[in-house]
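explain this:
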Amino acid sequence: MRDFINQQIVIAGAAGGIGQQIAALLADAGATLHLLDIRHPDETRAVSTACARIASVHRCNVARRAEVDAIAAQIGAVDVLIDAAGIWPHDDWM
């Protein structure tokens, strides 16, 4: 894997299996991570504890533009955006 030192990377869907694995790989490659997930930030952080390079964790529904814009304003410049978020039929996700 290439070197991602000093790269600001946003991962949407970071609490899920694919997002979590991507976060772990990029953390090992030196990336600074900003994790987004529809789940509570503590839950997202808990499933991503292997990633020592977490800069921020946000609860975000990426289908809602206002939520994404608010977080983008907080994070600032981003080098890489990874979308591992998905939608499934679930009553309590909104």
The chain has a mean pLDDT of 84. The radius of gyration is 12 Å.
